């Protein structure tokens, strides 16, 4: 009895582990994530354009030597390593040439042209923007950079791309289900859920999130907000601010845990859209809000992205399997 139980337990754990990691999935989900990451990366990279020379040129605020000193990378004892293609820019001209190449590579990645190559080049440039001046990084980089790396593993240009359009014109067979597509989606899912849990637990260590005043401090900042909600402080409406503050902490903790319950994913994804839309308007971090809303697609069921004919063919395939003898294919 006991031996049988442990055998079933090990088979159950092993089967669950294999089903979680080692499956083949359609590249549709990673193709949708490519568009999300590409749009955000394009906005992020383009934001450097107007002040690129002011920040990174030799006579700018953060030339190469100063960046090394501020990060401690010039001290061999620290063993700190930062690398960026912009370290090779010796003039403003070369700086803007590299910047133009980066924008073009990210644009090609977003539209899905020669996606395998464009994904790697675009990721190198996104990492280079972040690593050129780590002290300037904000909320976007810790999530965008890993997602770009994960998408390099998968055929993220298989659908919704110029590559897919060219493939259809040449009547080339569709890209088959891929293990790397499944792996990339799993990595994004784990990263996003852990990111939610990290944000929620970090807020638990701050008194202003416990006493309910945190949202008021965000609402009261006039420089970054897109809408003015300071009227919530008056006329006895402060309870809304307190409730909003506690809702944010609760939602981020709940999302990180319950998003793995499949039946709750549509509800949590819809709530996440409203959650980040409201925070983006209040805080002004609208690029980060777009990224967080878009990455909810990593948890979208595959059937949502399939056409009716493909769903019908999948049903027929499953019915054919059900009518086969038990020993077929073993």
From TrEMBL:
<feature type="transmembrane region" description="Helical">
    <location>
        <begin position="106"/>
        <end position="127"/>
    </location>
</feature>
<dbReference type="InterPro" id="IPR011020">
    <property type="entry name" value="HTTM-like"/>
</dbReference>
<keyword id="KW-0812">Transmembrane</keyword>
<dbReference type="InterPro" id="IPR052964">
    <property type="entry name" value="Sporulation_signal_mat"/>
</dbReference>
<feature type="transmembrane region" description="Helical">
    <location>
        <begin position="32"/>
        <end position="56"/>
    </location>
</feature>
<feature type="domain" description="HTTM-like">
    <location>
        <begin position="22"/>
        <end position="304"/>
    </location>
</feature>
<feature type="transmembrane region" description="Helical">
    <location>
        <begin position="80"/>
        <end position="99"/>
    </location>
</feature>
<dbReference type="GO" id="GO:0012505">
    <property type="term" value="C:endomembrane system"/>
</dbReference>
<feature type="transmembrane region" description="Helical">
    <location>
        <begin position="178"/>
        <end position="199"/>
    </location>
</feature>
<feature type="transmembrane region" description="Helical">
    <location>
        <begin position="241"/>
        <end position="261"/>
    </location>
</feature>
<keyword id="KW-0472">Membrane</keyword>
<feature type="transmembrane region" description="Helical">
    <location>
        <begin position="273"/>
        <end position="300"/>
    </location>
</feature>
<feature type="transmembrane region" description="Helical">
    <location>
        <begin position="147"/>
        <end position="166"/>
    </location>
</feature>
<keyword id="KW-1133">Transmembrane helix</keyword>
<protein>
    <recommendedName>
        <fullName>HTTM-like domain-containing protein</fullName>
    </recommendedName>
</protein>
